[in-house]
Design goal:
Elements (H helix, E strand, L loop, with lengths): L2 H15 L12 E10 L2 E10 L16 E7 L2 E6 L6 E8 L5 E10 L2 E4 L7 E6 L5 E6 L6 E2 L5 E7 L6 E8 L1 E7 L5 E7 L7 E6 L6 E5 L1 E7 L2 E7 L6 E7 L6 E4 L5 E7 L5 E7 L7 E7 L5 E3 L7 E6 L5 E6 L5 E7 L4
Length: 345
């Protein structure tokens, strides 16, 4: 053996003996997500990546039962809502082309017997929710255009049979953007957020369940029912500039801040069926991948942190008996619906 080769071999053996090894490439810890952007006055959706945790376990959660995967989805989905009695979920799933472009999204039902595709279009069908009697699915769609001008009003709330049969009913008036239509507990009204034109602030609206008398309330978003005449929603705290959670009567009176954090955004409120608790999300600044689920006690004002995974945990939803919080999560490097026991009595 040549002296140079022998010396190199001896050095390598010596390094192995003291525990050194060749540097290993970092493991990928990102997941694909979809972000809405305005480019040249056109609203487009693009695939981006964000951080997630390989581990599915919450850190420091020894005192709480671990979260369980409830529904396997696999790919990023925009929004979802639960059916009663653990019967499944309805969600909006993005359609990705072979060249990784976001082409559209459709409404799906995920149940115990499999998946049913409720829409199959080239449009963006988003923010599905069930009617109280679960006979219908409400959703938002720009049916008619793929890329919206920033000033167009081509988005409506639509209603269809939850079984996927029959026609579609268009509700209310056209807006530039509409978010999260939710039927009131008595099934008489629809609550939603909307921008009439691009660049405007998002406002809270409500109307009759068949689209009657759309009424604008206050600046805010992510509105949810507390009861038939009271809502909770997200809006900025004028003092801190951070998002906080507010309560308000449906006539716009008694707007009261109920949940805030001096360092973190508080967003996505969802009231329990007994109206005693509100699940919500805290977010670290402008980083959507740094989110966790919390529960606020309406009577005491106390807050309990439910998840501590370094992935994105968001979009909390309640089981009808208030025993579980469901949430979207990227933990395990895959997008799925999880649930965790609330331990509420």
């Amino acid at each position: 053996m040549k002296k140079g080769v022998l010396l190199a071999s001896l050095v390598a053996i010596g390094l192995m003996g003291v525990g050194c090894s060749a540097p290993q490439p970092e493991q990928d810890t990102t997941v694909k997500t979809v972000k809405k952007l305005v480019i040249n006055n056109q609203t487009v959706r693009m695939i981006v990546e964000e951080h997630a945790d390989r581990s599915i376990v919450d850190s420091g959660s020894a005192s709480r039962l671990p979260a369980q995967k409830y529904t396997s989805v696999g790919d990023f989905f925009g929004s979802y809502n639960m059916l009663k009695n653990n019967k499944g979920i309805v969600l909006s799933k993005y359609n990705i082309t072979p060249d990784k472009a976001v082409s559209s999204s459709d409404i799906w039902f995920f149940g115990k017997n499999g998946k049913v595709r409720l829409t199959n279009t080239s449009y963006f069908n988003l923010y599905p929710s069930m009617s109280v009697d679960e006979a219908y699915v409400y959703f938002v769609s720009n049916r008619g255009k793929i890329a919206l001008s920033n000033y167009d009003q081509t988005t409506y709330i639509w209603r269809m049979s939850s079984k996927g049969n029959g026609g579609l009913t268009r509700l209310g008036t056209a807006m530039n953007s509409i978010y999260n239509p939710l039927e009131s507990p008595d099934g008489k009204k629809l609550l939603y957020s909307a921008k009439e034109f691009g660049g405007q602030d998002t406002m809270i609206w409500y109307m009759g369940r068949n689209g009657e008398l759309p009424t604008q309330l206050k600046k805010g978003k992510q509105a949810s029912w507390l009861d038939n005449d009271t809502i909770v929603f997200t809006a900025k705290d004028p003092g801190t500039g951070l998002y906080a959670i507010w309560r308000m009567n449906l006539d716009g009176s008694e707007m009261t801040q109920i949940i805030a954090d001096k360092n973190l955004h508080c967003i996505q409120p969802a009231a329990s069926f007994d109206q005693k608790h509100i699940a919500f999300v805290k977010q670290n600044g402008s980083q959507p991948d740094q989110r966790d689920i919390y529960i606020y006690d309406v009577e005491t004002g106390l807050v309990d942190q439910m998840t501590t995974n370094s992935s994105r945990d968001d979009l909390p939803r309640w089981s009808e008996d208030n025993k579980y919080i469901y949430f979207r999560s990227s933990r395990g490097l895959s997008w799925n619906v999880w649930r965790i026991q609330t331990e509420l009595k």
